[in-house]
Amino acid sequence: MSVIVHEPSTHLTFPARPPIRERAARHLRTDPAPGNEPFRQPEPPPAESDNLPQPAHDKPDKLGFTFHLRDATCVLGSNHLRKVEGLGGTRRETTVIPTDDYSLFMHSWPWMGLGAGIVLTAIAFTTNLFRSDTTRSRWKDPVFIAWLGAIEYMVHNFEEYGVSVTGEPFAFVHLMERAGMDGVTEGAYLGCNITLVWLVGPALAVLSRRRPALCGAMPLFAAVNGLSHLAYVPSLGYNAGLATSLLLFIPLGAYTTVTFYGRNKPFNWRTYFRTAAVAALYTGCVFFTVRLASSGTLSSSPVLTAFITCATIVCGGLWWLAAHEEVHGAIPKTPSAA
After folding, report:
1. pTM of the model
2. Is there a single domain that holds both residue 91 and residue 198?
3. Cα distances (angstroms) measured from residue 174 to each of 5, 63, 116, 158, 318
4. Which residue range forms the structural domain that includes residue 314?
5. Are residues 128 and 163 in the same domain?
6. Domain contains 338
7. Confidence of residue 239 (pLDDT cuts 50, 70, 90)
8. Structural domain ending residue among the three candidates 42, 72, 100
9. Of the candidates 218, 220, 221, 190, which has an alpha carbon nearest to the alpha carbon of residue 204?
10. Which of 156, 249, 258, 312 is placed for a possible disulfide with 226 were both Cys, Cβ 3.0 to 4.6 Å?
11. What is the number of domains present in the chain?
């Protein structure tokens, strides 16, 4: 077919373009006519990363995340690099959609606790709500120290179960699994931390107005926990919770001991050792629960949850009994501006 253009002095002939359907079919033919082969971009050589084993998309790694990027699917474990199919190479990706065996609440509660900790810290240092006597420095007030002991644990939980200092999410759970303790269930983690940090800790802080010796309960237990994190440094290096242990747990525990216990101090050493003994007992209950879960003795999640939850509540009651002492020494007073 051709088109003839008539002009006054010249006759020009142009080849007509084939219809659109014919042009499209020409590019789709498997046996194009000579000279009509469509231009094709040469295939790039296979990348070295293409030889990596492909992750199973239908069964993401435990504690992993899955998301879709156009036609590429990436399955990620925490702090791991995985191949992005269809794109080649490797990259680090993040997502807020958990695909592991843990619930959305398990992934969310550390952030909720961090928010509560920030709000409570602002209240503690900008108001007098967490003080029993405004005539003394807040740092000499047992009620204020009791609240600090509850608040610091919320920040510690975020480092363990939210995002660690190294940027790894859910780092403490990963640490437990790498240590072969993946038998610890979600209920055990929540039964321990939610009960202790969200219920027992604030309750002891409120009750410290009636029994000021409760000011040492959470700080002393936190110090024991902080020392356990420190004990793993030679073998593990940094472990989730170490930073808050060094910056919060151990300093506050030492300060509470020096300021409130001893001769001519508000509380005697007998009260101190009773409180510290309950802290050590509860630490033993936590380790015992982990061992039972790892050995399969308590493989049922409800039983494991009930065990550690009851242990937490019982130890809270023991702290209440250990603090049954009248203030026998003068609590040091300093200007209330602090």
Report:
1. 0.69
2. no
3. 77, 8, 25, 14, 32
4. 104-322
5. yes
6. no
7. very high
8. 100
9. 218
10. 249
11. 2
